[in-house]
Amino acid sequence: MAAAKCSDDDLIEFLKTNSQTVAARHFGLNQRSIQRRAKRIALRGHSPEHDMTHTVPDGFKVKGVSSLYNKDGLLSAQWVKSSADDERRYQMMVDACEALRDDLPQITIPVSRNHGADDLLNVYTITDFHLGMLSWGEETGEDYDTDIAEKLLIDWFSEAISKSPDAKSCVFAQLGDFMHWDGMDAVTPASKHLLDADTRFAKLVRVGIRVTAQVIEMLAAKYQSVYVLHAEGNHDPASSVWLRETFAFRYEHSKSITVEVRPDPYYCYEHGGVSLFWHHSHKHRIDGLDAVFVSKFREVFGRTKHSYAHTGHLHHRVLKETSLMIVEQHRTLAAPDAYASRGGWMSGRSSTVITYHKQFGEVARLTISPEMLK
């Protein structure tokens, strides 16, 4: 029997009057699958054998159930306490990615006919772009919203691509916090701090997909090899998932484009005798980060002579050379928001294209600020 579509809500309704064995036959699933599903939906409050029949919405889990029985042993009252189920919400985001992939057309980008230097690699570094953030210039010194941000990113890449050295390969290193917030509520995912947002999340997703696709395809027109990194940030841990999966699917048949889908928030790329490492720095600050990279990518580090690590998160530039590698914290192109401005956390705005030679390491650097694009 072919498996029938079976949502958690369908299964809950069916199990009200049928056993798990009957449910397995009805939906064309094996017994273990039904048992696993039953355990999961029990976390939502459905466990009739324990007098639990009041479920909470998908994305939440039951935190506690208090039941009051009368003198005859019958249930007379019940209180259900719930909390957000982060693991289920993550799975819901993955499911949404799968649905988005079904609707997003795959395209095949032809390999560029440009013949750049094989020894060179251009790394385009963008971090903490905060697409969707609202900044009022009278309060912060610079206006910033979704429309301004989209135009800024395209203008920056147009200028950076035209002025960067001719190379065969490039990296689009988006180091996290590309999206200003990560769901229907404009708050930081962990601490729930209220954020200044200028649009709805659905529109933000639409703009994020559009501008990312345009940037990748601009790079693919110049380079024969394009490596795309969407790092996890503290503002967009879930959105970084669907960005990676969406574009990995879109360019699956494009030989020149590789999209990194690694779920661990530490990343690595090898270019001849050069090893490059990236982390947003929301999980580990610069101090000691070099040792983390060596531990996670021991073989790559051992094979290479020149090693460089890149982070974002704090919006201002820091360069530190350790006994293992050079660690650099990058500026952002985004304007400060009210929180940063009022807190006095100010820094310059710019992003870089760094050119690495397979044998000699970093050999060139192009820095472009928003003012240079006006």
Keywords:
374 residues; alpha/beta; 23% strand
Outline the structure in words.
This protein has eleven helices and 13 strands. The protein has helices spanning 8-15, 20-27, 31-42, 86-103, 137-140, 146-163, 201-222, 237-250, 289-296, 298-303, 338-343, and strands at residues 60-69, 75-84, 117-126, 167-174, 225-230, 257-259, 267-271, 274-278, 306-311, 318-321, 326-329, 351-357, 361-368. It is α/β, with parallel strands linked by helices and 374 residues long. Strand 7 and strand 8 form a beta hairpin. It is elongated. It has a six-stranded mixed sheet. A five-stranded mixed sheet has the order 7-8-9-11-10, with helices on one face. A two-stranded antiparallel ribbon has the order 1-2. The termini are far apart.
pLDDT averaged over residues = 89
Unreliable stretches: none
**CA-based gyration radius:** 25 Å
Number of helices: 11
Overall SS class: alpha/beta
Number of strands: 13
Instruction: Name the overall outline.
Output: elongated
Distance between the termini: 64 Å
State the major sheet: 6 strands, mixed
Strand content: 15-25%
Main sheet strand line-up: 6-5-4-3-12-13
Please give the share of residues in helix: 25-40%
How are helices and strands ordered from N to C? Answer: HHHEEHEHHEHEHEEEHHEEEHEE
